[in-house]
Write a structure and sequence with these properties.
mainly alpha, 0% strand
Amino acid sequence: MGITGGLRGVWTYVRGAPGTYIWLAVLFVTTVAFHHMSPDFEAEFLRQRSTNIRELSSNPVRVLVSSAMWIDGGRWLPYAVLYSVIHAPAERWLGTARWLAVCAAAHVLATLISEGALLWGIRHGMAPEAAVNTLDIGVSYALAGVVAVLAYRIAVPWRAPYAAAVLIVYGVPLVTGRTFTDLGHFTSVLIGFACYPLVRSRVKPRNPKETAAAVRG
């Protein structure tokens, strides 16, 4: 096939998931900006774009959008891989609108539920008052939701083990760590599973043995 054919195949794959790669490009720009901030400026800048309780109380729409444009930790390359193997196949399968609906549902609902649980903990003395300013940015809730919804892309004999593995991967940290982010990730998974009405009209589930061939196509 050669280098030209390989590049053409990559471009075809990227073009089939425009939302994924536009989002990834935005994350690249914000990550570069992140690394040029001083520590003091970075803390205040990200706090204002965090979906913490204080910001959600005053600017809910703004911070729900802006928090999804930054990567916690500032490492872009691992997310480029994750977006290519999780988000891109989901968007190519569902279409951009339905894929984005899954992402938005997981990101928004999991954020509100986890921050609501944190607020409950503060009011009942289980978390400090300062937790209202806890930094909460990143794209992991949307990613977890899409990981879950991809279960419906897998044929029935393999779907249950995949779903069980997803529940274990996200459930164990919730049981052992019991942080509000662990709750958010597990909630995102449940939301992804609940998105079945968005996917049932799509093409039939694919046998995992066909995955490599499908990606090349």
